[in-house]
Amino acid sequence: MTKKSPAAEAVKAWGRLMRVSRQLVEKTEDALKAGGLPPLAWYDVLHELAEAGEGGLRPFELVDRVLLAQYNVSRLLTRLDVDGLVEKLPVSDDGRGQTVRITPAGRETRRRIWAVYGASIAELMGDKLSAAELEMLAGLLGRLRDPPIGD
Amino acid sequence: MTKKSPAAEAVKAWGRLMRVSRQLVEKTEDALKAGGLPPLAWYDVLHELAEAGEGGLRPFELVDRVLLAQYNVSRLLTRLDVDGLVEKLPVSDDGRGQTVRITPAGRETRRRIWAVYGASIAELMGDKLSAAELEMLAGLLGRLRDPPIGD
DNA sequence: TCCTTATCGATGCAATTGCATCTATATGAA
DNA sequence: TTCATATAGATGCAATTGCATCGATAAGGA
User: Fold this and answer.
1) Rounded to an integer, what is the distance from CA B148 to the centroid of its chain?
2) Least crowded by CB within 10 Å, which of A91, A148, A151, B44?
3) Which segments constitute the HTH marR-type domain (chains A, B) (predicted)?
4) Residue B42 lies in a domain
């Protein structure tokens, strides 16, 4: 494995990607704060749990999905539990683990976050590029993903 | 101003952008850590200061360029100063301010970070997309930037 | 069964970040 | 000049994060 120097095009795209992603996150977090809502990470977790339905998810499954470190998930779940947005249930066939399920209050909070988050996406992405361009962007980004995604 | 619901394409592109940017940062930070090197933020600042040359930069100029909060720049500069990578000079025509200049040791550190950072960019972006695709990606991202950049 | 190793989730502690505010200097109007 | 306001940069304190590790249970081989 040889250490390579990156192509100029790669450096340019990298720089744009870093800057844009940080700007978008920052603006969205600001909008959430302005609305007295919790940060994006809470949404991610509530979203995954909502998708998972009544069966809930094990914390380690959440770790895979949301791209947060294990200890961050552990602590975030503690906060969500304290706030009554999720509930932790013992799981029968694995004495180490638990299952985490979203509560009605959690669904409601998720909905309220989405009102702001979704508007932010619409404003920051939807309004800037056409549907075809967004598809193209998603396609290119998909190939940078790990694992890469064709579609 | 009406709250809008985002288009499906926008949501998909958003999701990819968030995931990919976090993955790329994480992998790059890991590579830097593995090499016993300081984090990306250090590179950003050292890079800007290297570009600025002997004249250096005022901290507030750095704040604009690197997309870090003012207090983070202040503290990062303190660390860089302690490590001898930059030097803080009083500035004659503004008693509140200072000028920050990169030192030879700072240039050397920047070079060593780049050896890893650049290789990471080459591997994670350059190897995944063609030059034309990278240009296309940069173009699309440029339009999401604030302010938008055509080229 | 017993022992070693792996996995799940939590946590102590140090470092970093965010927020609010502070000090000091500069600017500009009266 | 004088005072009010704005700007540059630093910092106290609380919250969050990262790192290392822990305790508990599982899994698998001898």
Assistant:
1) 18
2) A151
3) 10-146
4) yes
